[in-house]
Amino acid sequence: MSEPSSLSEQEREELIAYLDGELDAEAARAVEEKLQRHPAWRREAEQLQATWQMLDFLPQAHAPASFTERTLTVLQASQARQRRYQRLRRLLTYTAWAAAVACAAFLGFQYGVSSHLRSPDAPWPPSEEVLLLLEHRSYWPYYEKLGSFTFLKQLDQSDLFQEGN
Amino acid sequence: MPAQSQTSIQMALRDPDVALMLRVRDDDPQAFEELVRRYQDRLLTVMYHLVGNRDEADDLAQEVFLRVYRHRKEYHPQAKFSTWLFTIAHHLAQNVYRRRQRKPEAQLDLSDSGLLAQQPQELWCTTLPGPDAQLRHEELSQVVQWAMAQLNERQRLAVVLNKFEDMSYQEIADIMQISVKAVKSLLSRARAQLRQLLAPYVQMEMRSGQLPRALPHNATDGPHAPAGSQPQPHTAEPHE
To answer: Residue A98's pLDDT band (boundaries 50, 70, 90)?
Structure first.
């Protein structure tokens, strides 16, 4: 069994950094001087170096022949999954936009109707004509073009579009 | 030309792996395959020594490569490619440590089973006197693995990167996101601990002349340039 190190922690750090070639020229010279003068430094250095060489006995792994192929296969599968996810995300985004636009149109329409009803000029309760328009939204384009309720009333009263005619 | 492009070109000229990674970034599929082939053994070795389990190391190494590919567009070479790769590996290994802390029963302790359940001194005494050099080599390998398993995770990472990847303190500091001074201290403590743990075996090896006693002539020789015979590294069998 070797004797315990007689170097302080800082001295040992310097010695190991020297052995690793990590010291600048001046610090390396200082360590070399200590190595020449002090047998304890030399013993410590020898022990440390021999221990470091013992690590050569550690196993070094070799990847199996299939490793590269397996990695590439996993990568391709992961990319395919990623593409599917992106497609789904795009679809969901478009759907969300379409729903938002439809929602906005509907709310706009509702707002338009309610604004019209709430305008100071609009009588309350709404007139028979306005109720007719609310009941039959399909009449709106005709009303917009004609600007008169007369035709719409006639249309409503007539059985022109009723089944059996 | 933008400064970032200039840095990329300079790094690519200095480190061929940076050039390869830049090809991966530009969606060259062959470049990625080449990158995996080039780094798989090194990465697997590091991961194995970090997590201590071959199958888990295999899965983690694969995950590291997948992350490299997924984040290829964010790659901007500022250091060696291996620094970036092992930074990812370090983060993944940390996830494993955290998971093991949450589920201690899932942790694989190298000293839990088989020959490693024994104290190394017992192991040495009961099996090493055998005449077979290969057996002696394997026993020593297990003793050194046992000693490595006694280090904490940060020490182990620093040792593995320094020993197997021949990384400088600066590179290790970049990967572990700590200061160079902290790396110096970490490695010093780790090596002092290994020295204590392996002292009996080091003595025997030195007496048998397997390990050199000579010191480097100067700092540039380092511990990686031994002056005498050096034990051949044990190579683990590939696992399918």
So the answer is: very high
Residue A74 phi/psi, 5-degree rounding, is: -60, -40
- Burial (CB count <10 Å: 0-12, 13-18, 19+), residue B208: exposed
Q: Which chain B residues contact residue A9 at CB under 8 A?
A: 188-189
Q: Has residue B66 been placed in a domain?
A: yes
How do residues B127-158 score in pLDDT, each as one tens digit? 444 556 777 888 889 999 999 999 999 999 99
Any B CB within 8 A of A68 CB: yes
Distance from CA of A88 to the nearest CA of B (A): 20
Are the C-beta atoms of A66 and B44 separated by less than 8 Å?
A: no
A94's tokens: 């478009």
Q: What angle do CA A86, A90, A94 make, to 5 degrees?
A: 170
Residue B78 shares a structural domain with residue B130:
no
Domain extent for B143: 114-209
Chain A window 27-46: which residues touch B at a Cβ cutoff of 8 Å? Answer: 28, 31-32, 35, 42, 45-46
Closest CA to B191 of B181, B183, B179: B183
| The two three-digit tokens of residue B45, written as one number | 């070795």
Residue A108 has pLDDT above 80, yes or no: yes
B1 and B58 housed in the same domain: yes
pLDDT in tens, A40-94: 999 999 999 999 999 999 988 888 889 999 999 998 898 888 888 989 999 999 9
Contacts (Cβ under 8 Å, ≥6 apart) of A154: none
In a domain, B237, yes or no: no
Locate tokens 């990472």: which residue?
Answer: B157
